[in-house]
Amino acid sequence: MSLPVHTTPEEAEAAFYGAFEAADLDAMMAVWLQDEAVVCIHPGGPRLEGPEAVRSGWAEVFGSGQRLRFALREQIRIRDALLSIHLVKEYVHVDDVLRGVVLATNVYQQVDGGWYMILHHASPDPASEVERPEGEAVH
């Protein structure tokens, strides 16, 4: 099976958040470069290295049954010919209720004419004043 080609980093990012909102593991992994150098860090979680660890991490997130929706704000993008770094604030909604704000860094690399994620690092925004039910994960 060949991976879809994302012709811009913005297209890859849209596919990332689309897969996240749909809790679609195969679509999520189609966004990621299949390389041992990929890294994913979920809020409060360990550093997941390599495609298998990243896949397992997303399977755990999606297995919670919680469906999240995102509004991205305060986006900063830094790009050169081969890398695109996106710094975003994720406003995370569950059942149309804002449940948290997350600071995320998403890095995309151009490989063979397509853009693929190589890093997602997210942590709760300490400046956010959103209240969540006790023990509820942000993502």
In short:
The protein is of the alpha+beta class and 139 residues long. The protein has helices spanning 9-22, 25-31, 51-63; strands at residues 39-41, 47-49, 68-79, 83-94, 97-111, 114-124.
Report on this structure.
Helix content is 24%, strand content 40%. It has 139 residues and is of the alpha+beta class. A 6-stranded mixed sheet has the order 2-1-6-5-4-3. A hairpin with a 5-residue loop joins β1 (39-41) and β2. The relative contact order is 0.21. The mean pLDDT is 91.
Which helices and strands appear, and what pairs or packs with what?
Blueprint: H1 9-22, H2 25-31, E1 39-41, E2 47-49, H3 51-63, E3 68-79, E4 83-94, E5 97-111, E6 114-124
Helix pairs in contact: 1-2
What is the ordering of alpha helices and beta strands?
Answer: HHEEHEEEE
The low-pLDDT segments are none
CA-CA gap between termini = 29 Å
In total, the number of domains comes to 1
The number of distinct β-strands equals 6
Compute the gyration radius: what is it?
14 Å
Strand order of the largest sheet: 2-1-6-5-4-3
CATH topology: Nuclear Transport Factor 2, Chain: A
Continuous helix count: 3
Largest sheet: 6 strands, mixed
Strand content: 35-45%
CATH architecture: Roll
CATH class: Alpha Beta
Helical proportion? 10-25%
Structural class: alpha+beta
Anisotropy-based shape: globular
Q: Provide mean pLDDT, rounded.
A: 91
